[in-house]
Amino acid sequence: MALIRCPECSREVSSHAPACPGCGYPIQAGTAQSPRPGAGPHAPQPAWQSPGVWGRIATVLGAWMIVPWIARLIFAVGALVLGYFMFTK
To answer: Would you say the C-alpha torsion 32, 33, 35, 37 has a positive or negative sign?
Structure first.
C-alpha cells in the first residue's frame, strides 16, 4: 500500500482507497487523476507533443518523397536493359 497525494486537496491518501477521505475526490486504479486538463504533472499531452511523433512524421515524409524516385529508377533501368537486348544482336 502506497500513499499518494490527492490532486484536489493535496492530502495523503492510500493508493487502494476508492476516494479521498478529505474531499471525496475519486482515486482511480491506484493513481490520482488531475481534476482538470492542464493541471498537475500527469496532465495529458496533445498528440503532436508525444514522444517520437516528429520522428514518425519525418519517416513518412521521407518515404513519400523517396519511394517514387526509386520506382522510377527501377523502371528506367529495366527499360534500358530491355532496349539494349531488343536492339543489339
So the answer is: positive
